């Protein structure tokens, strides 16, 4: 019998049947809140831990009904004929969502208890069993809600569900230790090996992250680490940086493989809905040949570490076997 857990957390969304976030078929729970601000972030709606209001212009018919109903006078018609949200006035009451007949407003985020999250995850238990899958907690940065994360992971483990987390590892090690007894796999991003470049691209230096990876490698707990490297053309894909990443990982024993994640721009619509400027609009996804060249470069080192390229790119998966 599981003890009833009432702690609540901030969740962005829950996605089912993922085959790109760990082994087998997985349910992915996106936590809200992140201390980083990566320029290529594909879930900008997860960066702030609070629920946020999005406006989807293509659904709006400019009926103007919402304008007079906003209690804070935060809505107006802009010169380019769309609804402008004055975010300095908006108090996130979300009344405009109910008023709009066309679904042009969207709330990003919800509050859920540990039990509610575990119940949602448990609905897919049959799929986990038949595919060796499980749950993956993503974000945002899930470690920012570490007590809530620990309780969700612990509840899953008590039900025999395989657990993984996707993390930047930008956190205090004493917090990371709280979840280690309940996690089977950690997916950790290494975004740049140079600390100054890392800060320019993500808003934080990488010293804590690399230090935490080294500490994790000598942890007494039984989990494996999979390193993910986003490949952002012109920003972190120099041979020097990638070889430096490989050298760092090669010294560690818990790392199962390095996975390259080709940059994509799927978050652009969300940036627009939140009135956030997308800084990388002039950068294209790397080509298949570019990724093949990087894999080949890393494999020339003849280390035993496996190098993979993630094929979960909906706009023309990079299949390195062809
Ligand atoms: S109520 Fe909805 S459709 Fe009408 S102007 Fe406001 S956002 Fe647009
Ligand atoms: S969430 Fe509330 S305060 Fe913000 S724009 Fe909508 S109605 Fe106005």
Automatic annotation (TrEMBL):
Keywords: 4Fe-4S, Iron, Iron-sulfur, Metal-binding, S-adenosyl-L-methionine. Residues 20-310 form the Radical SAM core domain. SUPFAM superfamilies: 4Fe-4S ferredoxins, Radical SAM enzymes. Its cofactor is [4Fe-4S] cluster. It catalyses: glycyl-[protein] + reduced [flavodoxin] + S-adenosyl-L-methionine = glycin-2-yl radical-[protein] + semiquinone [flavodoxin] + 5'-deoxyadenosine + L-methionine + H(+). It comes from the Bacteria. Residues 51-80, 81-110 form the 4Fe-4S ferredoxin-type domain. The keyword Metal-binding applies. This is Glycyl-radical enzyme activating protein. It comes from Tepidibacter hydrothermalis.
